Amino acid sequence: MPYKEHEINKMYYTMGEVTAMFDVNASLVRFYEKEFDVLQPKKNKKGNRLFTPEDVENLKIILNLIRDKGYTIPGAKEHLKSNMASTKDSQKVINSLENLKKFLLEVRDQL
Questions:
Q1: Closest Cα partner for 94 from 49, 60, 55?
Q2: pLDDT (tens digit, 9 = 90+) per residue, 45-92?
Q3: Does the structure show a pLDDT above 90 at 28?
């Protein structure tokens, strides 16, 4: 695999990178940070939030539950408390299907 095709995994993502990934406002991310215990980004000396890849995955799960599945915030909290392992497994399947769709669209565009 050529160098440019390697996916670069970062240890930490800034608030700007996270908001751009999910197309949300920083205030929404801060709100979810207060509401959900699974979302705990680190803060540097200046107070800037630094999200680990696990935090990013947890935020993706939260947004999926609230936006796509129509959960309320209390409902999403309860779902995460009781079904965290199965929810993470479901999110992995969703991620792999999204990657497959992206790949297939790229192949179609090249034809």
A1: 60
A2: 999 999 999 999 999 999 999 998 899 999 999 988 888 777 888 888
A3: yes
Grade residue 111 by pLDDT with cuts at 50, 70 and 90. Answer: confident
Rounded Cα distance between 102 and 105, Å, is 5
Strands (E), 3-104: 13-14, 42-43, 49-51
- Specify the higher pLDDT residue, 41 or 83: 41
CA angle 16–19–21, rounded 5-degree value: 105
With contact defined as beta carbons under 8 Å apart, do 39 and 30 qualify?
no
What pLDDT is attached to residue 3? 54
Q: CA-CA distance, 8 to 27, in Å (whole number)?
A: 27
- Nearest CA to 50 out of 7, 88, 16, 23 is that of 16
For the chain, report the end-to-end CA distance as a whole number of angstroms: 22
Q: Which strands sit side by side in the sheet containing 42-43, from one edge to the other?
A: 13-14, 49-51, 42-43
